[in-house]
Design goal:
The protein has helices at residues 10-21, 33-40, 51-60, 97-109, 126-137, 158-163, 175-185, 197-228, 232-240, 261-274, 280-292, 295-304, 330-340, 353-356, 370-374, 387-390, 395-400, 415-421, 443-449; strands at residues 2-6, 25-29, 64-67, 79-82, 114-118, 144-148, 168-172, 192-195, 311-315, 344-348, 365-366, 379-382, 405-408, 424-426. It is an alpha/beta fold and 451 residues long. The protein folds into 3 domains: 2-195, Rossmann fold, CATH 3.40.50; 204-291, N-(1-d-carboxylethyl)-l-norvaline Dehydrogenase, domain 2 (Orthogonal Bundle); 293-449, 3-Layer(aba) Sandwich (Rossmann fold). The longest helix has 32 residues, at 197-228. The chain binds 1,4-dihydronicotinamide adenine dinucleotide and uridine-5'-diphosphate-glucuronic acid. 1,4-dihydronicotinamide adenine dinucleotide binds next to helix 1 and helix 4.
């Protein structure tokens, strides 16, 4: 089949490449000419495992092209996907400006029957608007069908997730259009759920908010664990052994970041509000996430009294490992808090340094490698759990840093790991670990923690 994909970000690019890989003829359209030029040359514009070789292969085999021109892809396509961004607006709602612009540009160039599929995350009712926006620009008599096909891939494993998705949601009133989308993805052999438009749109928000809620829930358990001397990782393990709960998304830490959980949780709260309902879980999830970001900075303040003029190393910048995406990355708010407290901050990330550079305050020093980042540091904050950090030799902290203290925002290390490295260790929802010589000075801190 022939497909056009509008928007070549994380979702559009991966969708386009995977569809081409499945044997379809795909045209990817983006308004950003620089991005299009890079992609047309086989250079991935995002860091995603497995994407680069698949992109080049599909281009070489002649099944994948990139353009800024809608008329080079949409009129010929059996299916046109919209995968442009739907960022948060100033009121916490989904900003549909890009979706509308894409729909209108599609309308400008099509005639005859066209199936428009929305992959972007959009509030219930938007697909009906998309149909109208396309129709407003298309010639009279154009037969337009819309399908809601929300996306569930995770950044960092986007290609794998697309090939091994748990489900394909196809929301459509036009049965033929829904069938066509089902046929397009049939080679993936993914379980399919057919729904009406509004249910498909709500499934996406409900899924993201539910996962975000699980994270906020376990982060609240971490807050309780900190106060009563329990270990949140054990609590999560015990909870997760119940298949009805599942162990996934129960990792306590710094709170969720990224381009979707924060915005989608807020957007669903607004969707509910506009429908006359107060969505208490949405509000609570968001509130807990905000307070979680500062937990270890607060622990550091308890520990040191002041962070003024301390040299602090921050390991990891991207919102999670496996991606260079800096959208809503918790590292940024931690850096801000540390600098507000007067600390000197050095950062190191194995992948995201380039994307992070324009977002960092000028006084932040970016190290080129792990060793350089630790050299002379007073205290280390592990923020993104890249393999390089998970596998690091902890004795490096003892040997390179002037004070051997690690604040682990992701609960990466065990008590045994840090004890054998002889470092002081603070984490989330777990007891702090002190080398013998600082146990006495730490007594007050432990008292405050209630341990
Ligand atoms: N990033 C993710 O992991 C996931 C994102 N989503 C949803 O998918 C949608 C897209 O997200 P991302 O891929 O992260 O966005 P992105 O911001 O990475 O990419 C969007 C792309 O659309 C292009 N664009 C914007 N307006 C355009 C127009 N009028 N015509 C042509 N191109 C245009 C931009 O230049 C950009 O390349 C959002 O609604 C998001 O909520 C859903 C699941 C996963
Ligand atoms: O709509 C989207 O954009 C996507 O949002 C998330 O995917 P993503 O944001 O790429 O990454 P996740 O792996 O879900 O992690 C999100 C955030 O939660 C945090 N997290 C995740 C899991 C956990 O147990 N604890 C935790 O703090 C991560 O560190 C990260 O900051 C969802 O998992 C995808 O299904 C969805 O398609």
């Amino acid at each position: 089949m022939k497909a056009a994909v509008v928007g070549t970000g994380y979702v559009g690019l991966v969708t386009g490449v995977v569809l081409a890989r499945l044997g379809h003829q795909v045209t990817c359209i983006d308004k950003d000419p620089e991005k299009v030029a890079k992609l047309a040359g086989g250079i991935p514009t995002i860091h995603e495992e497995g994407l680069g070789p698949m992109l080049s292969a599909c281009i070489d085999e002649g099944r994948l092209t990139f353009t800024t021109a809608y008329d080079e892809g949409c009129p010929q396509a059996d299916v046109v996907f919209i995968a442009v961004g739907t960022p948060e607006d100033s009121e916490g709602k989904a900003n549909l400006t890009f979706v509308r612009a894409a729909a209108e540009s599609i309308g400008d160039v099509i005639s005859g029957r066209t199936v428009v599929v929305t992959k972007s995350t959009v509030p219930p009712g938007t697909n009906r608007k998309v149909k109208q926006w396309v129709a407003d620009k298309a010639p009279a008599g154009t037969d337009i069908a819309v399908v809601s096909n929300p996306e569930f891939l995770r950044q960092g494993s986007a290609v794998y997730d697309t090939f091994h998705a748990d489900r394909l949601i196809i929301g459509a009133e036009d049965i033929r259009a829904g069938d066509l989308v089902e046929k397009l993805f049939a080679p993936l052999e993914v379980p399919v759920l057919r729904t009406d438009l509004e249910s498909a749109e709500l499934i996406k928000y409900a899924s993201n908010t539910f996962l975000a809620m699980k994270i906020s829930f376990i982060n609240e358990m971490a807050q309780i664990a900190d106060r009563i001397g329990a270990d949140v990782t054990k609590v999560a393990k015990g909870m997760g052994m119940d298949r009805r709960i599942s162990p996934d998304f129960l990792k306590a830490g710094i709170g969720y970041g990224g381009s979707c959980f924060p915005k989608d949780t807020k957007a669903l709260t607004r969707i509910a509000e506009e429908a006359g309902y107060e969505f208490t879980y949405g509000k609570a999830t968001d509130h807990v996430n905000d307070q979680q970001k500062n937990l270890l900075v607060e622990k550091a303040l308890f520990r040191f009294g002041s962070l003024k003029d301390m040299n602090i190393t921050l390991l990891g910048l991207s919102f999670k490992p496996g991606t260079d995406d800096m959208r809503e990355a918790p590292s940024l708010s931690i850096i801000e808090s540390l600098m507000e407290e007067g600390a000197n901050v050095t950062v190191y990330d194995p992948v995201a340094a380039e994307k992070a550079a324009p977002l960092l305050p000028e006084t932040v020093v970016t190290a080129n490698d792990l060793k350089e980042s630790l050299d002379g540091s007073d205290s280390v904050f592990l923020v993104t759990e890249w393999d390089e950090f998970k596998q690091m030799d902890l004795s490096m902290i003892a040997s390179l840093c002037s004070q051997n203290i690690l604040f682990d925002e992701r609960n990466v290390f065990t008590e045994e790991d840090v004890k054998s490295a002889g470092i002081e260790y603070h984490s989330v929802g777990r007891r702090s670990v002190y080398p013998e010589e600082v146990v006495k000075t730490a007594a007050y801190y432990d008292k405050v923690q209630g341990l």
